Amino acid sequence: MRRSIKSTAKTGIFILPIVALMMALLLSTGALAQQPASETESWQFGVSIYGWLPDLAGETAFTQPGGSSEFGIDIENILDSLEFALMGTFDMRKGRWGILTDAIYMDAGNSQTGTREATIGRIELPVNASANVDLDIKSLVWTLTGYYRALDQPGMTLDVVAGARYLDVEQKVNWIVTGNVGSIAVPDRTGAAEASLTNWDALIGLRGRFAFGAQNAWFVPYYLDVGAGDSDFTWQGIAGLGYAFHWGEIAAVWRYLYYDLSSDKPIKDMNFSGPAIGFTFRW
Question: pTM of the entire structure?
Answer without folding.
Answer: 0.76
